[in-house]
User: Fold this.
Amino acid sequence: MATVLFVCLHNAGRSQMSRALFERAAAGAHRALSAGTTPGDRVHPEVVEVMRELGIEIANRKPQLLTRELAEQADIVVTMGCGDECPYIPGKRYIDWDLEDPKGRPVERVREIRDEIARRVADLAAELAVKPQA
Assistant:
């Protein structure tokens, strides 16, 4: 079982969608976490709305601060726009996804971002399904 940590700035959009979509795609075979370098107060309402369209409820998830201890739990760290603020921990696999921040975007655009995340998450889950993890 691999642990994947999804990180963005506020842990209120991209990383929350990524975590929820990965949890669905991995179906319990792998663990997902999410965090932000400067966490917001809540998940963005437009993100909650587009995730509900897929039957995924994330309104009650609370953005959390990225800490070194949290990052140390991960086998894979997927970063989205946090740049140099993400801690580097030797031995971890890092993946950077260049994704637009959905905050304040029209719902149509947030859906497009969600669907792109879903595609990337499905690819990652499929890759993990064929590669044994330590």
Q: What stands out?
A: DSSP finds four helices and four strands in the chain. Residues 32 and 99 are 19 Å apart (CA to CA). The longest helix spans residues 107-130. The chain has a mean pLDDT of 92.
